[in-house]
Amino acid sequence: MRSSPGNMERIVFCLIVIFSGTVAHKSSSQGQDRFMIRMRQLIDIVDQLRNYVNDLDTEFLPAPQDVKRHCERSAFSCFQKAQLKSVNASDNAKIINMRIKQLKRKLPPTNTGKKQKRSLTCPACDSYEKKPPKEFLERLKSLLQKMIHQHLS
Question: Which of 34, 58, 68, 122 is deepest in the core (most CB within 10 A)?
Answer without folding.
Answer: 122
